[in-house]
Amino acid sequence: MRRITRIATVGIASTALALSVTACGSDSSSGSGSDDNGGKAAIAYDIGGRGDQSFNDAAYAGLVEAEEELDVQGTEAEPSEGEGDPDKVQRLTTLARAGNNPVIGVGFAYAPAIAEVAPKFPDTTFGLIDDTSKTGPNIANLVFNEEQGSYLAGVAAAKVTESDTVGFIGGVETPLIKKFEAGFVQGVKDTNKDVNVKVQYLTQPPDFGGFSKPDLGKAAAQGQLDAGADVIYAAAGLAGAGAIEATANAGKWAIGVDSDQYEQEGLAAYKERILTSVTKNVSGAVFNLIKSVQDGDPQNGEIRYGLEDDGVALSMSNPAFTEMTDVIEAVDKAKADIISGRITVKTAP
After folding, report:
1. Tens digit of pLDDT for each residue in 292-349?
2. Can you give the pTM of this predicted structure?
3. Is 49 left (phi over 0), alpha (psi -120 to 50) or beta?
């Protein structure tokens, strides 16, 4: 296994980057990677960083797979608290100058920075996850039909609820997270119009703390539980872990997001109450982009993943969920109808 270099950003005012190495091999070294035949690739994390048990961890899994399968040396770069676009520009520039190719920004917040940095490094491919607003000849926009997976979660929630009240928690009220909401609410209502869906967002732009503060997610979930919700779906990054904790402790059902949160080690104490998760194949998208660069045919433009190619899906890890045969049948039918075009899922509420 190759080694992964981890870069912790200490802020735009600093002229240095603190380096530490994640122990994937036996040696600790920042390493130049000059002896790595597979080349170098880097990911710059979104708010919450690695360890969010969700979006960022999915990207990390793709980098690890590339190390193991493609002999690539990987580098990770962490965000700093309260950072702005200049911090992201500095981070991406540092990664590109170090010879990483591709350099992948994990999340739509990297769009302005990639638009600024990519033209300066025309021979480097930049991956931009969850955003199509900034394009270029060396930019690959890796995007997903989140609304489709969320629709399936809505079907499951409507079938499972006993109180006829379910909840949706969004980390930050952005167009991307509104896609999650739209699909979920439509799936619920198409399944049972009498089910009430409580919707709450934790923060509003430019405050993106709703993606990084578990206490906010926990408090929001508790409020929905107190109002009668017995199934809660949170699309809130690290804050979603707090929502899962509150929901599980109340003995109700949580629905995870981005990664299969039933399988996440950091959420093991709550896994029996994680009914399912709306997964996005972020790991596969990261791996595929790295491989395309290594193969000499870099991806560029919009690369979209949906239900038809398992780019989004509903996880089946919890045995309690798979034993609910009527729920699974309803989910499978909805999936087939979306793929066939019989159901068109809204991308905005």
Report:
1. 999 999 999 999 999 999 999 999 999 999 999 999 999 999 999 999 999 999 999 9
2. 0.86
3. left
- The residue type of 163 is S
Q: What is the pLDDT of residue 52?
A: 82
SS3 readout for the chain: CCCEEEEECCCCCCCCCEEEEECCCCCCCCCCCCCCCCCEEEEECCCCCCCCCCHHHHHHHHHHHHHHHHCCEEEEEECCCCCCHHHHHHHHHHHHHCCCCCEEECCHHHHHHHHHHHHHCCCCCEEEECCCCCCCCCEEEEEECHHHHHHHHHHHHHHHCCCCEEEEEEEECCHHHHHHHHHHHHHHHHHCCCCEEEEEEEECCCCCHHHCCHHHHHHHHHHHHHCCCCEEEEECCCHHHHHHHHHHHCCCEEEEEECCHHHCHHHHHHHHHEEEEEEECHHHHHHHHHHHHHCCCCCCEEEEECHHHCCEEECCCCHHHHCCHHHHHHHHHHHHHHHHCCCCCCCCC
How far does CA 39 lie from the centroid of its chain?
Answer: 25
